[in-house]
Amino acid sequence: MDAGIIVNIILSILSFALAAISVVTVVITLKQNNKMLEANARPYVVAYLVYEEFHNCVYLCVKNFGTTSAIINSLQITPKIDLCEKSSNEVLTDTMIAPNQQVHFLALDETKQDRFQRETYSGTVSITYTDCSTSKQYQETYKITTEYTNEVMSLHSEKSGVSKLENSVINIENILAYMKNSNM
Q: How far apart are CA 124 and CA 140, in angstroms?
């Protein structure tokens, strides 16, 4: 064999190898892009506790933080939270929740408020929901606690490194924003 034929064979093998590597790279990139698009376009339904100081109440809030609607298949909170008319495990089954929609259920009112201040509720949320656009089902489990709600979810909070006057102004601003958003 002469040198030209050997060089052509080597170049053909290298070209085939580079083409195979390119195809594999494109397939991997497409799969990653598909996962990122799904993550950006899916619903994220979360249940959490909200403490409203002005009404002296605690609410169970369920909100869709995603960009598509979801149908809630089941919401299980262990141990159950007593709501005004039902338990936490009896609400929202087979209910659609739109993007950025939130639903509040009164969990603790003024009569139970002292108990809420003294005791820390700690439980587990297990929520299953289906994406309305793709029919893909998601199931998430996480912890829920009133300790976080008591300490962080309050309008009367104090930020470190800020003077008392500045904290007062921030709290007044938060109160006015709350009143504006709740149409008081």
A: 10
Q: Give mean pLDDT in consecutive 10-residue pieces for the chain, a chain of 184 residues.
A: 88 95 96 91 90 71 93 90 77 90 76 52 89 94 74 55 77 71 56
Alpha carbons 183 and 13: distance in angstroms, whole number? 72
Token pair listed for 106 = 């009164």
DSSP state letters, 34-67: HHHHHHHSS--EEEEEEEETTTTEEEEEEEE-SS
CA–CA separation, 51 and 149 (whole Å): 6
C-alpha span between 173 and 91 (Å, rounded): 34
Alpha carbon distance 160, 150 (integer Å)? 18
- 156 backbone dihedrals φ, ψ, rounded to 5°: -95, 70
pTM: 0.65
The DSSP secondary-structure symbol of 110 reads: G
Query: Bridge partners of 72?
Result: 95, 129
